[in-house]
Write a structure and sequence with these properties.
The structure is a single chain. This protein has about 160 residues and is of the alpha+beta class. About 20% of the residues lie in helices and about 30% in strands. The protein has one domain: Roll (Diaminopimelate Epimerase, Chain A, domain 1). Strands 1, 2, 3, 4, 5, 6, 7, 8 and 9 form a nine-stranded mixed sheet that branches. β3, α1 and β4 form a beta-alpha-beta unit. The longest helix has 15 residues.
Length: about 160
């Protein structure tokens, strides 16, 4: 489902595709992701407010560069902006595939986040999209000191 916000002219995808990604008995166990397609750059504080107002753990805001598969993306939690988050990127890629290239079976994207760019590929299958990415080498910003880790080990 897609809605156009008259104030911001931003498109809001409530579901990643018209079909449910996860078929479960309890609807509250489904994974929720809000993907906002932006045509103008709005200040990130307003995106933070939207994420809080929607009570989402993560929201992704995407700006697809004209006539390309290059996407600038920003990911927010209720508390902060993230430099990287895999699940929102995969969901956004599937939503973009559905919204902008539904007639094409396989699409290769380049997602640009705050500190890195990386390839994402989506493949339309019968009832869903398959999305995969290569995020590159994982870099840990802070390592847990070994002396503190020993506290958690069994003696």
């Amino acid at each position: 489902m897609r809605r156009l916000d008259p104030k911001t002219q931003a498109s809001l995808w409530v579901e990643v595709s018209p079909r449910r990604c996860f078929q479960q008995q309890n609807r509250f166990q489904e994974t929720a992701l809000l993907c906002f397609a932006c045509w103008k750059l709005y200040p990130p504080p307003s995106w933070q407010e939207l994420t809080r107002e929607m009570r989402q753990f993560e929201s992704i805001f995407v700006l697809q560069k004209e006539r390309s598969q290059t996407v600038r993306a920003w990911v927010f939690t209720m508390e902060e902006e993230l430099d990287f988050a895999g699940h929102p990127v995969l969901g956004a890629a599937a939503a973009l595939h559905e919204e902008t290239m539904a007639g094409i079976r396989k699409v290769s994207w380049t997602f640009e986040l705050n500190k890195k760019s990386f390839p994402v590929q989506t493949i339309r299958q019968e009832s869903h999209y398959r999305a995969e990415m290569d995020q590159g080498v994982c870099i840990f910003a802070l390592l847990f000191p070994l002396r503190k880790a020993s506290h958690f080990s069994k003696h």
